[in-house]
Amino acid sequence: MPEFDWQFTLVLITNGVMIGLMYTLIALGFVLVYKATDAINFAAGEFVMFAGFIAAFAAAAAGAPFLVSALIAIAGMAAFGFGLERVVLRPLIGRPVVAVIMATIGVAALLRGFSTLIFGAGTRVIEMPVGDEPIDLGLISLPPVQLVGACVSLVSLAVFTWFFLKSRTGIAMRAVADSQQVAMAMGINVRRYFALAWAMAGIVSALGGVVWGAMLGVDNQLAVVGLKVFPVVILGGLDSVPGAVVGGLIVGVVENLAAGYLDPYVGGGTKDFAPYILMIIALMIRPYGIFGRRLIERV
Predict the structure, then answer these.
(1) pLDDT digit string (tens) for 103-131?
(2) In a domain, 159, yes or no
(3) Contact 217, 224 (CB under 8 A)
(4) CA 138 to CA 219: how far, in whole Å?
(5) Structurally, how many domains does the chain consist of?
């Protein structure tokens, strides 16, 4: 049974921050789709899993170095996102949002089955050229993979925050999310921006798949990491990039503290359900999230 001390707590919090930033990377793909299309992507975890399989397969079968295999995964997932929007989701434009939700649930099931069929059920390895020796930062030490993942997350967040706030394309995507009809009346090509949003979600998922695949290995269970997306985006707000950061950090820190201080009393597993307890509390108190838009509908 661990004693409560500041050094132990600091280690838990620091590791939680690193993991939280990696959760944020996955949540960013979720937020991108919601901000642009006002739809919820329930296949976010499967996107990450499929991207990890592509990178691992490129490294193993073609002998590609890490950077090349990562670029192949990014290009492949961008093309996949674009094709998914064109073939599956474009016919649903103007339909109720629940139709898109059900379509993404179907895509998630197809990706799980297709990945097993093509890549097999075994665990594949993505070797990131950063070594395995923990990096000593004084009172704490961190695995290099976590540091790389956190840096990738921070850079991605900065880029996409600038994109949505400053670029003409990002502002147009936000306008499409607010009202498809008004956006079309203003001359915005809604279909083009929908395709761009899903392609961008594929790119972010590829980054997440490579980072998480390097840390955990790539198999069908990698999609379970995507389930942490939902507590993250519910806490932070479905349409908020800063909210994805805050939600990811909260989930990462809380689950690590739970594992460190509660697992010895209950036999383990608290980090698996602690984020969902947070999500339920958030839905009861502030259902639109910390930074989400407050929308009220009378029914």
Answers:
(1) 999 999 999 988 888 888 788 888 888 77
(2) yes
(3) no
(4) 35
(5) 1
Other CB atoms within a 10 A radius of the CB of residue 80 amount to 22
3-state secondary structure of 248: helix
Q: Give the pTM.
A: 0.88
Helices 44-61/97-119 angle, 10° precision: 30
Residue 45 structural domain? 6-129+142-285
Within-domain flag for 134:
no
3-state secondary structure 71-105: HHHHHHHHHHHHHHHHHHHHHHCCCCHHHHHHHHH
Buried-exposed string 256-286: b where 16+ CB fall within 10 A, e elsewhere: bbbbbbeeeeeeeebbeebbeebbeebeeee
pLDDT level of residue 3 (50, 70, 90 thresholds): low
Distance CA 193, CA 147 (A): 33
E strand intervals along 130-238: 135-136, 141-142
3-state secondary structure of 218: strand
Domain-embedded: residue 298: no
Residue pair 211/145 in contact (Cβ under 8 Å)? The answer is: yes
The answer to whether 49 and 118 have CB atoms below 8 angstroms apart is no
Residue at 11 is within a domain: yes
Task: Give the amino acid at 152.
Answer: V
CB atoms within 10 A of CB 289: 23
